[in-house]
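Here is one chain, start to finish.
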Amino acid sequence: MIQSLEGINLGVAICGSFGTFKNTIEMVKQFIELGVNVYPIMSYTAYENTTRFGLREEFIEQIENVTKKQIVHTTEGVETWDCMVTLDAILIAPCTGNTLAKLANDITDTPVTLVTKAMLKNSKPVVIAVATNDRLGSNLKNIGTMIKNQNVYFVPFNQSDPQSKPYALVANFLLAPDSVLAAVNQKQIQPIIST
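Its structure:
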C-alpha cells in the first residue's frame, strides 16, 4: 500500500471551468509541497481563452512556474509526450461537464481526453474533480457512467450554490491530495458527497 504521494508522477489536466482556476493553482502548489512530480496538461478551451477570471497568459505562467514544466496543450503534444508512459495517475481538475460528457462517450478530441484514454487503457487511476453548472441536470448520467469504471475515482463534490445554481456541482479541491492517494491504492475516498 502506498503511504505517501512523495515521488508520484501525476498528470494534472486543467479544463475550462475558469472560476475555479485560483483553487487549481493552490491545489497544484499543495501537490508540489507534498513532493509530487506534477505534469500539467490543458484543454484547448482552458489554454486559449482569457475570461473575466483572468488573463490566459498569467494563468499559464503561474502553472508553468509552479510545476517547472511546460504545459502540454495540443493533441500532437500528447501523442509525442514521453512523460505519459511514466504517469502514475491523472487528476482532471477542474473537469467540466463538457469533458466529462466526452469521457463518458469515449470521445478523445482534446489533449485532456486523449491522455485520459491512454491512462484508462493502461489501467492507471483517473481522478476527476468536477466543476460544472449542469452536473445535476441533463448530464448527471455521465457521472454514473464514469463512476462505475474501476479505474475512475472522484474528488468529493457538492452543490456549489444550491439557491442560485441548484444544478451546479464543484469538487472540494482541498481533498484532491487525499483523493489521489486513495486512487493510487485503488480506493475511492469517502464520502463522495462532500459537506
